[in-house]
Amino acid sequence: MGGYSSAIWRCRYFWLSLVKMDLHARYRGSVLGMGWSLLQPIAMTMIFCVVFSQIFHEDATEYAPFVLTGLAFWAYTQFCILNGCLCFFQGESYIRQYPAPMAIYPLRTVLGAAFHLVLALGVSVVLAIITLHTFHLGALLTLVPTLLLLLMFGWGLSLLGGLATVFFRDTKHLAEVGLQIVFYLTPIMYRPRLLQHERLAWLLEWNPLMPFLSLLRCVIVEGHVPSPILFARAIIIVGVLLSLSIYALSRLERKIIFYL
Amino acid sequence: MARIELNDVSLTFRVRPNKHMTLKEFVLKQMFRKPTQPVMEVNALRSVSFTVEQGERIGLIGHNGAGKSTMLKVLAGVYQPTSGRRIVEGRICSLFDISLGFEPEANGWDNIAYRSYLQGETPRTIRNKIQEIAEFSELGDFLNMPVRYYSAGMLVRLAFSIATAIEPEVLLVDEVLGAGDLAFQTKARQRMRELMERAHLIVMVSHDLMSMEELCDRIVWMDHGRVHRIGPSREIVAAYEQAAQPATSQAA
What we know:
The complex is a heterodimer of chains A (260) and B (252).
Chain A: H1 2-10, H2 12-27, H3 31-55, H4 60-85, H5 87-90, H6 92-95, H7 104-132, H8 137-141, H9 143-167, H10 171-185, H11 193-196, H12 201-206, H13 210-220, H14 228-252, H15 256-259
Chain B: E1 3-15, H1 23-31, E2 40-52, E3 57-61, H2 68-76, E4 83-89, E5 92-95, H3 108-118, H4 123-137, H5 152-163, E6 170-174, H6 182-198, E7 201-205, H7 209-215, E8 218-223, E9 226-232, H8 233-251
Parallel strand pairs in B: 3-7, 3-8, 5-6, 6-7
Antiparallel strand pairs in B: 1-2, 1-4, 8-9
Helix pairs in contact in B: 3-4, 3-5, 4-5
């Protein structure tokens, strides 16, 4: 483990420069480009705001940061899984030449996604401060550990997605279908309380995305420090996912090249 | 100290004849208890053992498919042996598949940086080298252009310039010299000669028996994944030529 981590660290210049290049390509190296890439979640938020304030009589001022936070998190998760599926193919020519640790390829995917997540959450925070006046420095500081947990979470997802795709080529297609379902089962555009009563409560209880979603919304939308129980849940989920990833990687790492 | 030790190394590729497996196929076949696609096993290397000490130059010869290139990839650590032990001490510089591994959208300068970082450089060590690499490649203003627009020959120039800019201890070479136009080839040969003088240990694959005999101390003759013979270069080359002779005269 220690040796592996230091091998990842040793080639940090390599994966960091690839992340930088990915971001450069995505934003075309301009501030306007960053705004451009935020257009999609913002447009979605506006649509949801109009629809939900009409149909469900949601208060748009409170609903907008709520849904923007949810969408930012969702886009991150989706990107990690779907682009994670391709990570080893993306790095194939490097894999064929140098024995670098395989974990750096999903790491490249995740760091790119995380940068975008931070941008989108930044917009949410500003929006919430303007519309809801929920400025609480202590609460905002808890976003740092939350983001670290999300980074680990995304790394695990990308890694597992990448490994699965190397061995089963239709994984990405199946993941797209699965994500579509999960999107509607997770309170991203609707309020969690819609699921709270009736027989659907278990959906909330067992949804592994919920703790992260709650951690973010608690801070950004409600403006207070999240309860330690939420953190504990998120840590358990990350722990399980990472153990699974490390186990899978240790079993499959040497075989990847033969299946590319 | 550079050193290579292979101890009873075997490598088996598992190949599926009908492209890749999908999850759908896997689940369905499992459900109806049908056998999944047959897997063909290819024994690329079979219990290969040899040691190379500091200062030695080793050549690998053999027919196509004898396992020469696979052997180089095992030595480089790109392929992990299915069984057996591989020990390679020293900083490895591998010259094979070099025209792979460019980021098409990034320009030449950036690609020099990525490649060099992967070879273990840091921003500080690269600063002195990057100019030298650019000069050697003679690509000039093309370096400001995305690599996507490069011709095959330009890519090889760039790749060769980067790959040979490091100080190798263990040098692994797979016939790369047929690279670029004539002027560059001469330059590349010259650079290879310098590199070989500096490297502590060399393993090379080539079909050019003349230069192999001249450059290598010992030669490993591979056949069907096994080490057929190993010994002083002149002796092995002579024996190899003799073995190849009747076959070629019959064919003619």
